[in-house]
Amino acid sequence: MSNYIFAATAEKTQPDGYDLLTATDEMLFSQVQRADMHAFEMIVSRYKTRLYNCVYRMVNNAENAEDLVQETFLRVYKNRHNYQATSNFSTWIYTIALNLARSELRKRKRRQFFSLNSSTYQDSNTEGFDLPDPSSGPFEHLEQSELGRTIQKAIDLLPIKYRTVIVLRDVQELSYEQISHILDCPTGTVKSRVNRARLRLQALLRQWHIEV
Q: From residue 97, how far is each of 13, 52, 103 by CA, in Å?
């Protein structure tokens, strides 16, 4: 996660009385819109771990997760002038990251579909269950346990819409209201999806004789 390299050629502007360390995301990003690379570095520092953990849980691959987070920050910067200060910045950046993660999952599904007639298809069903080295991934204490690996395997089997809400609610611990804004759907719909996702997870774990 140390390779976030951006050409810091712009002047690092900082208005009088403007403290980048305590500024809100929206205040920081107003400076990013003025091509302040120092402010952008602060945004990256604030969000890179949270986004990586979120995306990693979605795609279950450390290399893919890092690439997708890199792409998220690149898109944030390229589209900085499209951001409207009337919306919450965290909602905007999570939306970009999740769209990329879900796009990656759909690509995998299409690749799997086109391999239906291949002789290796039987093995492809479990291809996504291999976890990266737990020492280099998020939630190390969870991944080092058999239970943690089993729960991730169950998450991998959820449809994308349920996987998304489980990751946002139970991994990222975002509120229903925050998730509602990120997914642009009613709070009631979010709560319903979370409940259904949890029931599906519980059913899978019971099939595997796992009690949580």
A: 28, 9, 10
* Composition of the chain by helix, strand, coil, percent to 5: 65, 0, 35
Backbone angles phi, psi at 180, to 5 degrees: -60, -45
Separation between Cα atoms, residue 156 and residue 24, nearest integer Å: 34
* CATH classification for the domain delimited by 1-121, as one of 3.40.50.720, 1.10.1740.10, 3.40.50.10490, 3.50.50.60: 1.10.1740.10
CATH 2.40.340.10 fits 145-212, yes or no: no
CB 55 within 8 A of CB 100: yes
Rg (CA), the chain: 19
Alpha helices, DSSP H, located in 13-88: 25-32, 37-59, 62-78
Reduced to 3 states, what is the DSSP secondary structure of residue 39?
helix
Cβ-based neighbour number of residue 135 at 10 Å: 8
Domain boundaries, the chain: 1-121, 145-212
Tens-place pLDDT, residues 14-68 = 554 557 788 999 999 999 999 999 999 999 999 999 999 999 999 999 999 999 9
Burial class of 3 by CB neighbour count within 10 A (0 to 12, 13 to 18, 19+): exposed
Query: Which residue reads 């029931």 in tokens?
Result: 199
Does the pTM of the predicted model rise above 0.70? yes
